[in-house]
Structure prediction request, 398 residues.
Amino acid sequence: MSYLEDGYVLWPVPPDWDAGVREQLEWLTDVIEARTGAKQKRELRLGPRRQFTFEVIADDQSRRVLDMILADHGSNYWLLPIWHDVQLLPALDVGVDTIPCKTGGFELFADSLVVVWASVNNWWLAAIEDVGEDYITTGLPTDRAWPAGARLYPVRLARLDRQPEEAAWTDTAGTRSVVMRIEEPSDWPAVLPATMYQGWPVLDMRPDTGDDLKSSFARMTNVIDEDTGAITIIDRPRRAFREQSLRCLLGSRAELAAMRSLLYGLRGRAGHVWVPSWAQDLLIVAPVTAVATTITIEWAGYSLFGRTQPGRRDIRIELTDGTVLYRRITAAAEAGANETLTIDSALGRAVEPHQVLVVSFMALSELASDRVELLHETDGDGLTEVKLDFLGVKRESA
Prediction:
């Protein structure tokens, strides 16, 4: 099968991976925010809108074919291969309806479409009937024998968000920037982190620290300025809302699948999750017994300025052996050069200061935007970069 009159139109040119492939997921959350910081939320989409942005370099035949199809078909539906889910196939005989392939973490689902692709005008499209651990079954048998090395892609119905402009290098080669919007549901299993604290899941995916971790404190202030006198600032919530950016580098298909499940679990701004600061916010300086409900920290001004406020009372204690404990600070008092913090329950084990790797504050947070972008540097078995921006919320109990 290739292009036929009144047939499916497959996007003909693979992306230039030098620039990667950008995938955008966008939910829609209606948020009503009170002056106190409380929020009422309503989800307006059953699933996210999905968009892909990529560059193509087309030369010779591929350039001529792409130009011809765009001129005739540009505003209509396309079949877009899911580029990061590519895999190379073994040789396939003619007339077989079972294709050996990897399926875990791939967008290969019953009743969806796949394409076996060899070149711009040499491909075969089929519907999936069944998905196994290491194969898919198609509704039609292969129309010919395919040599080893042909590519298998899931495909989705899509439309161009805008008509791609060509930057011609020569009379036979050029590049285009392509933005395509998926026009069918993009379902994926939603899975939030299994670790729970105070009724909410805890984000336990450690961010990449190759870039600086950025954070700040948002304030909900009303500024009254009559231009004739002093400026009045009213802070009704009387608390800070932590803003935090996390950069995640995903180095395997399993990690990419887990991140996608997390994003579908959060549903844009709709969901809540505890987000650690990943910083050494408090330093334990004295041994803690297994039954003690107090810990001694180096003076950090907590008794004066922390005061068990929301966003400053829930802590993540990570030990050098990998154990992670979550506790809530219920009281604080100065003790000379140190401070004594009372926690809601004992650690359940004796802990020496040198056994503590890091103590971080946690803030119950939402995604700061309904839109999240995944940058696929390679296919899904390689590297994907995701930046997550979180904003603290007022509600801190289930």
In short: Helices lie at 60-73, 253-266, 302-306.
